[in-house]
Structure formats: C-alpha cells, structure tokens
Amino acid sequence: MENKEVIAMLLAGGQGSRLGVLTQSMAKPAVPFGGKYRIIDFPLSNCVNSGIDTVGVLTQYQPLELNAHIGIGIPWDLDVNNGGVTVLPPYEKSGDTSWYTGTANAIYQNLAYMESYHPEYVIILSGDHIYKMDYAQMLDFHKENKAQVTIAAMPVPMHEASRFGICIADDKFRIIDFEEKPEKPRSNLASMGIYIFNWDVLKDALIRKKDQSNCDFGKHIIPYCFQQDMRVFAYKFDAYWKDVGTLSSYWEANMELIDIVPEFNLYDESWKTYTNANSCQPTFYGVDSSVYKCIIGEGSDIDGDVENSVLGVGVTVEKGAKIVDSIIMSGTHVGADAVINKAIIAEKCEIGAGCKIGAGINTPNVEKPSIYNSGITTIGQGSVIPPGVTIGKNTAILGETTLSDYENMSLPSGQNIIKAGD
Questions:
Q1: DSSP state letters, 280-315
Q2: Average pLDDT, stretch 255-276?
Q3: Which of 267, 383, 286 is nearest to 300 (CA)?
Q4: H-type helices in 109-221, by residue range?
Q5: How many other C-beta atoms are found inside a 10 Å radius of the C-beta of residue 1?
Q6: Among residues 196, 190, 200, 191, which one has the least CA distance to residue 150?
Q7: Average pLDDT in the 227-242 region?
Q8: How wide is the angle at C-alpha 317 spanned by C-alphas 313 and 323, nearest 5°?
Q9: Against a cut of 0.85, is the pTM above it?
Q10: Cα–Cα distance for residue pair 104/125, rounded to 1 Å
Q11: Of 216, 292, 231, nearest in space to 260 by CA
C-alpha cells in the first residue's frame, strides 16, 4: 500500500449505556442526531474536511446499524482504493479471540492495519462527540513543536474538571503533568480524547503496555509517555465540543441546533457535515399545521403543531397532535391529537392517537435514576404506544406495548416498561 503521512483511528465501539433505551440495539456513535445525521458523522466529516483519507473505524457493541451507515464510505468520499474507510471489529486470531477491553487495547489489536500504511503520524479519535475540528491544524501544531504526542484539550469549568483527564501545561503548552480524573484538579485544561502520536511512539507504547488489563490511553499510554520523558503538548481548542453521552446532554445538544443563532452551525458551507442519507420526497405541511423554531427532516408529513423540536426524516404528525421541546427520530408516526412534551422518541415508533407523553410531575426514575433524571420521557427504537395512554416524566419504554401494560391507562413518572430485553 502507498505510504500515508497520517491515518486516523476512530473508536466507535462504545455502548453508551447512559443513553438508556436509545442504545439498546445500536452503538452510541450510530444514534441519530440533528434530524438527518448520526453522531459518528461529525468526526468522519472532520477527517474529510481535514484532508485525511484513511480512517479505521473500530466497532464492537451492536455494530449492525453503524456498519450499514458507514458502508464503503461513499458519502464522505472515503470509497478510495488506497486508504478510505475500513470497519475494524474484533476478530478471531490463532490462539485466542479477544474483545476490545480498553481504548488503547482496541488500537493495539489493529497494529497490522496501521503498519500497512507506514504512517508518520496516527490520530486517535472518539466516535461519540459533536464538534468541528481541523485536524490538519492540530497536526501542524504537533510538527511545529517537534512533539511526540499531542493531546487536544479545552478549558472546562473548574468544578467539572474532575470528570476529565487533566493536562498541566507550561506557557508554551508543553504538558508537564497529566492526571486522569483527579479528585483535586490542578488545572481546568481537559483532554478531549483526541491524540496525535508519532507512529514509532504509539507502536512502542502499545507493545510495552499490551499486557495491561483494560489498557486505556488516559490511564496507561499517556502516563507511560511521561515516564519516558517524551515531548507531550496540549493543542488548545476553543470552539464548540459536546459529549452527548447522557440523555440530558444529548437533548440539550439537539435543542441548541434550533436556537435563533445556533452555537453549532449545521449549515456552514465551508465545513460541511456529510451523512449517508437516502433521498426522500419533499416535506409536506398540511393546511392546519403550525411549525415554530424546528428542524424538520425530508419526507415528513406534518398536519399538527410542532414547536422547538427536532424531527428526523419521514416523520408523520397527524392532525391535532402537538409536539413541544422534543426529539422525534426518523420514520416515527405520531397519531392524531397526541401531545408530546420534552421527549426523545427513537426511530420507527408508533405513537397512538390521543396519547399524552411527558405529563405529570418530575419524579426520579425508580430503577435507573442515574440515567432517567432530567424530566425527559425516552422511548426506544421500534416501540409501539397504544392510543389514549398517559406517560409521565423520567420514564423509559421499549417494545410493542398494549393497553394491558398500562394500569388505569397510564405509566406514572419514574416508571419503565421494557419488553424487548434490557
């Protein structure tokens, strides 16, 4: 194969368990976002816009939807003979079969793929963040500083710093210490989980730490590089970056798209976001429909009222239905006179006529309060809600439910109905 100056390795195997029923049947990077996209579209588009044409996508948890979406990389112009996009699941080797057990272990198991391109530099990316970044500028910074490792980092509020890997850097942004999720942070410069390594440095570190249990970049590889007194720098990033790993952050990031002047602009012609989307017929708005401050996907049929919401492709909203502050994903059908308030409804759901979703008081979820806790009603992919039922806040529903599943035609706030495995 032709030698490549830089290749990207995109970690996309995460389950995303904090997204609850949204990731029941798909990996977090495959979750829809912004009406027509999926989360993985953003780092993939960053690669294309940055001139990186060789990307290995490491998959593991529920990869079917993700693999089908990526295909051979046509939407991102990554369907090239030398390089392009390659999906890299765990595979059986002589002697053993190993799941990816950590971020660095996943990269280690694909040394042969990287070696085949003889790269000078390898950029490690996460497949589950929403942002636009020119990796070519980060690579220029890496070269100018004669760095061996560069970590993309951004300032975060000091009270949140303990959630991140923290870089302690001098005035030239050379990192003099790195602490993974410290109890008492000494800096607020947080690692974004984006790294550029000189290939020889990465290869050596991965081989040296290959027997480390659950080998991880933040916990093991970066500290090892410090032990070897390497030149490690922080590339400061000041633009929009969002970890959409919780239901509340995912909902907030979608709602930010429909601000009058959105902080994250999906319509930037100079930095396009590409996706694998089938062409659809135009969206239809009925004579009695009302739409205010929304993103509405192609091929939708709107006969009701939609306000401050993000709707995917091919969504049907029947007459008299009202949707407020919600995310309705592609292919979902909302019946006549249904009322939906602050809900996330996944793809291909059937919402019965006259349902009231997101009603009642904000009671914490009984079974999983750490996931369903921000007043959002969450309905998983392919679920069916029968007509006329009332569903409270902080609830989760997954599967084809019937009236017999709802005592007194309702699901109180903080309760769940999970019929398709959990």
A1: -PPPEE-TT-EEES-EE-TT-EE-SEEES-EE-TT-
A2: 89
A3: 286
A4: 111-115, 135-144, 199-208
A5: 11
A6: 196
A7: 94
A8: 100
A9: yes
A10: 11
A11: 292
